[in-house]
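Design request, tokens follow.
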């Protein structure tokens, strides 16, 4: 009997909140006898790519939305990867400081909310962002963001959000995030379960 992607994901325990939003399927070329082009549930272009040994990316949103092309048949030898989203760190005057999954479109107010919300003494927010062009420090007022006077900024992977409370001194250096948290976040984790 054939197995579809959604069945395989259910057997492996499902998709967690920390998923990045895409599923990668790698099918080694010439490992399986594919019936005829287009019969395995993929578009002809994606089918051609998979039969030649490359990777196809499927959006989790499309799979959960029930799009048939996002739920292909999984064959023996296929490698299915659901990567964890890289983290965003929220620290300072929030109720539950820690790391969050950086899903696309996550805003500053959402990140603070997911970190348990800001404490009563929270005032300013500093976002430390590392990029290919160097580091950037972005400052904004939390009350202005809440009232709509200031933009609710979109966060990026590996941003460090420091919510300062009244009386805190501004940091002169980027807060240090221990390297061990990168491994704990699953960014460098190997597959944990193989379904035969």
């Amino acid at each position: 009997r054939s197995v579809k992607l959604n069945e395989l994901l259910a057997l492996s325990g499902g998709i967690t909140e920390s998923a990045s939003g895409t599923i990668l399927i790698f099918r080694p070329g010439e490992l399986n006898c594919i019936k005829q082009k287009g019969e395995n549930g993929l578009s002809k272009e994606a089918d051609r790519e998979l039969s030649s040994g490359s990777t196809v990316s499927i959006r989790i949103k499309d799979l959960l939305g029930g799009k048939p092309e996002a739920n292909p048949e999984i064959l023996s030898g296929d490698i299915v990867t659901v990567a964890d989203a890289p983290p965003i760190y929220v620290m300072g005057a929030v109720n539950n400081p820690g790391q969050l999954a950086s899903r696309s479109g996550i805003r500053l107010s959402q990140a603070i909310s997911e970190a348990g919300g800001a404490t009563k003494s929270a005032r300013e927010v500093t976002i430390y962002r590392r990029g290919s062009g160097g580091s950037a420090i972005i400052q904004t007022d939390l009350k202005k963001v809440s009232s709509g006077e200031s933009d609710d900024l979109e966060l990026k992977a590996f941003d460090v959000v420091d919510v300062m409370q009244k009386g805190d001194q501004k940091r002169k250096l980027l807060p240090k995030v221990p390297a061990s948290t990168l491994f704990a976040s699953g960014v460098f984790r190997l597959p944990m379960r193989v379904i035969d």
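Comment from the thread starter after seeing the answer: thanks! The longest strand covers residues 122-131.
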